């Protein structure tokens, strides 16, 4: 299949193209996974660039387009994931592990101190 028309062609209006480019740099290529859709040459990234440019040209806001792409492809498509309640354990886990390590080390040092003092 040929690439989407706006996959490699910029919008005529520089302001709209700047909005599209700014959004495309924050969206992940689902095939490459380490590149934004602005940098990727994958056909899927070209289709996503086409969608972004088409929707920007139609007057849609970048955040609305991001929301649509996240609904379509999942949270992974965005380099700026949204905070959801399901994510809090992921952020809390390192703090819990650090707290447990401090408690265990404190107990170990106390017991070692008691042994040295002869208690």
Strand content: under 5%
Helix content: 55-70%
Count of DSSP strands: 0
Distance between the termini: 81 Å
Order of helices and strands: HHHH
> Based on CA inertia axes, which overall geometry fits?
rod-shaped
Number of helices: 4
| Major β-sheet profile | none
Radius of gyration in whole Å, from Cα?
A: 24 Å
Instruction: Give the low-pLDDT segments.
Output: none
Global mean pLDDT? 85
Instruction: Quickly give the structural class.
Output: mainly alpha
Give the gist of this structure.
By secondary structure, the chain is mainly alpha-helical. It contains four helices and no strands. The N and C termini lie far apart (81 Å).
Report on the architecture of this protein.
There is one protein chain. With 119 residues, the protein is mostly helical. It has 4 helices and no strands. The radius of gyration is 24 Å and the shape is rod-shaped. The chain starts with 13 loop residues before the first helix and ends with a helix. The model has no long low-confidence stretch (mean pLDDT 85).
Structural features:
single chain, 119 residues, 4 helices, rod-shaped, mainly alpha
